[in-house]
Design goal:
The structure is a single chain. By secondary structure, the protein is α/β, with parallel strands linked by helices. It has 16 helices and 14 strands. It has a 7-stranded mixed sheet, sandwiched between helices. A 4-stranded antiparallel sheet has the order 10-12-14-13. The longest helix has 18 residues. The two termini are 19 Å apart. 47% of the residues are buried. The chain binds pyridoxal-5'-phosphate. The site of pyridoxal-5'-phosphate (PLP) has 14 residues, from helix 3 and helix 4.
Length: 436
């Protein structure tokens, strides 16, 4: 019998997986040109030609808008900044309710707090992990101003149904597409499906500039408000002749010329990255075929998934051992990625804890120490365990997430992952025995 690594047997894989480094001479040369120019950022926080940034920033915005077939692209220094700017541009304010997802990176929900608005958590879809339209509709009140949808794991939200609800109730749709650059809903790009869409260019995303973000919109007014919020709105509103002062307190969310020039090179590599990810997913899923009780997540009809993460559905009753025992045993067979050594084996139970369980929501302490803005919230708004049963079931019992599909993975590397899954699956009686 083949002894599992978790029981002291030999690992399937004893050397790290190849790390993904998408930087090459193109980024290096571009960066060198910027450094040699001495102009590392050309933004000025005053009403001047340079209010909208330098040549690299403007070129990136133009190229991004063209690529994603959208009228405006506004670059910022992170997707988190982009989300905050979008909430501000939407005119959201204290006591307004914004429907958000519990199953996403924390900023997709916390961004509304900076304007004193109240995040209201909707449950997610059983198959696709995006906001569940029925749950969203049930939560709408006369205070609801917007819905923040998330194209989680790289798959677009249910645009037709969610946008119809938004239209009916006159709500703004902010689309967090941080994990989904290049994903498609029909022939429309994720990020362009709502009123404003946000992308991330941080180190862990498909393409990156170290840190960075982008907000896109087809709405001229929103684009201008985003640019004002990005760059100290309050200091220019007079000269810019801005009459609507709502949320015209700005930030410094500006991207540097260095990040912009790197992002321009990275954008050229996006479609190549996506093709490799998709091929890796196909190869991996084929290798797990017939593993009863473990199935790849479904892809929404008429959409293209870009696999920021790849999700497997785990059925504990069918496999016969708990998810945590199974996942820990597979992890023991595998290794980390080079360049990301400190993150450990990139295979996890669940994704992030449902966000309403964070101390922020459990204690209702956000801005200041006295509970603002939660003190403005309607009494019916709850952050208790149980409010999003589908999300909780996925997170605590059935979802396995991994990144073994990143573009540095070759077939022989994926073969090791497949081998590890099968080794644990076929020898799971060793785990059961150990457990009893
Ligand atoms: C990464 C991520 C963000 C935040 O991106 P930053 O650029 O790091 O601020 C927001 N939302 C989602 C869904 C993300 O995955």
């Amino acid at each position: 019998m083949c002894k599992l690594a978790i029981n002291g047997g030999e690992k399937v894989r004893s050397k790290p997986f190849p790390g993904y480094n998408s930087m090459d001479s193109m980024e290096i040369d571009a960066t060198r040109r910027i450094i040699e120019s001495g102009v590392l950022s050309r933004f000025l926080g005053m009403w001047h030609d340079d209010f909208y940034g330098g040549e690299q920033v403007r070129s990136l915005e133009k190229e991004w808008a063209e690529y994603f077939n959208v009228k405006h692209a506004v670059c910022v220094n992170s997707a988190t900044s982009g989300l905050i700017a979008a909430v501000g541009a939407a005119g959201i304010g204290p006591g307004d309710e914004v429907i958000v997802s519990p199953y996403t990176m924390s900023a997709s929900a916390s961004c509304v707090l900076f304007y004193g608005a109240i995040p209201v958590f909707s449950d997610i879809e059983e198959e696709y992990y995006c906001l569940d339209p029925k749950s969203v509709e049930n939560l709408i009140s006369d205070r609801t101003k917007a819905i923040i949808v998330v194209d989680i794991f790289g798959q677009p939200y249910d645009k037709d149904r969610i946008n119809a609800i938004a239209k009916k109730h006159n709500l703004i749709v902010i689309e967090d597409a941080a994990q989904a650059p290049g994903a498609l809903y029909g022939n429309e790009f994720a990020g362009t499906l709502g009123d404003m869409g946000i992308f991330s260019l941080n180190y862990h995303k498909h393409i990156h500039s170290g840190e960075g973000g982008m907000v896109v919109t087809n709405n001229d007014k929103l684009a201008e408000r985003l640019k004002l919020i990005r760059n100290h709105a309050e200091s220019v509103v007079e000269k810019a002749e801005v009459n609507n002062l709502c949320n015209m307190v700005g930030f410094n969310f500006r991207m540097t010329e260095i990040e912009a020039t790197i992002a321009r090179e990275q954008l050229k590599k996006l479609s190549r990255d996506l093709d490799i990810r998709r091929a890796n997913v196909d190869y991996f899923e084929n290798g797990l075929k017939n593993m009863i009780g473990i199935t790849p997540m479904k892809v929404r009809e008429n959409t293209k998934h870009v696999y920021y993460q790849h999700i497997l559905e785990y059925n504990e009753d069918v496999v016969g051992i708990s998810r945590s025992v199974f996942v820990n045993a597979v992890r023991a067979e595998l290794m980390h990625f080079e360049l990301r050594e400190t993150e450990g084996v990139k295979l996890g139970e669940g994704y992030v804890k449902p966000l309403y369980l964070l101390p922020l929501f459990q204690n209702r302490i956000a801005i200041g120490k006295d509970g603002w803005p939660f003190t403005l919230a309607d009494k019916s708004i709850s952050y208790e365990l149980g409010i999003c049963p589908v999300c909780e079931k996925k997170h605590f019992t059935s979802l396995i997430a991994h990144e073994f599909i990143i573009p540095s993975m070759r077939k022989e590397d994926i073969d090791d992952v497949i081998k590890a899954f099968w080794k644990v699956y076929e020898n799971r009686n060793q785990l059961k025995l150990k457990d009893i």
